[in-house]
Amino acid sequence: MSQMRDAAMVEPDPDLSLAEIWGPISGNKNKLVQEDYGSEPNAVIPLYEEHEAGDKISLYWGENTVDPEVECELTASDLFKDEIVFQVPWSYITAAGKGDIAVWYTITPDDADTPARKSTRTLVTVEAVARAVDTDTEIDTDTDTD
């Protein structure tokens, strides 16, 4: 069984920080509103102390793995960072639909003997999964007859 499959069965590690999803237009944390529609939100993954070059971080949105757009292999330059930022393709958000959507990540170490780790789920409130209908057009229903 691959480590990616193993990661799906691993219990969440409470020592890993939660993922944060930031609305690209609204600036909301863990909430996507209509004005965010179509612009890819950022997923911020705080790096853990033991991170090493070669570790893979994969983001999950609902029941879909966001891959490969939201999967990264840590490099030597990442060792000095506090976090990794992914952009989440809107197609994954649309596929999961509206509501409180579970988002989490896995860390698959480069070392095949080290088990994968999984974060606790973050609930992201998704209010918009389609472009809004233009409601600015008003129909004049006033029937003044002087």
Average pLDDT taken over every residue: 82
In angstroms, what separates the terminal alpha carbons?
81 Å
Major sheet size, sense and barrel closure: 6 strands, mixed
Global outline? elongated
Structural class: mainly beta
Helical element count? 2
Question: What order do the helices and strands follow?
Answer: HEEEEEEHEEE
Specify Rg, calculated over alpha carbons: 20 Å
Give short descriptive properties of this protein:
disordered C terminus; 6-stranded mixed sheet; 3-stranded antiparallel sheet; 2 helices; 146 residues
Characterization of this structure:
This protein is mostly beta strands and 146 residues long. 10% of the residues lie in helices and 33% in strands. A hairpin with a 2-residue loop joins strand 4 and strand 5. The longest helix has 7 residues. The N terminus and C terminus are likely disordered.
Secondary structure: elements and pairs:
Elements: H1 3-9, E1 20-22, E2 31-32, E3 42-46, E4 56-61, E5 64-73, E6 83-87, H2 90-96, E7 99-108, E8 117-118, E9 122-126
Parallel strand pairs: 2-9
Antiparallel strand pairs: 1-3, 3-6, 4-5, 4-7, 7-8, 7-9
Provide a concise account of the structure shown.
The chain is mostly beta strands. It is built from two helices and nine strands; from the N terminus they run H-E-E-E-E-E-E-H-E-E-E.
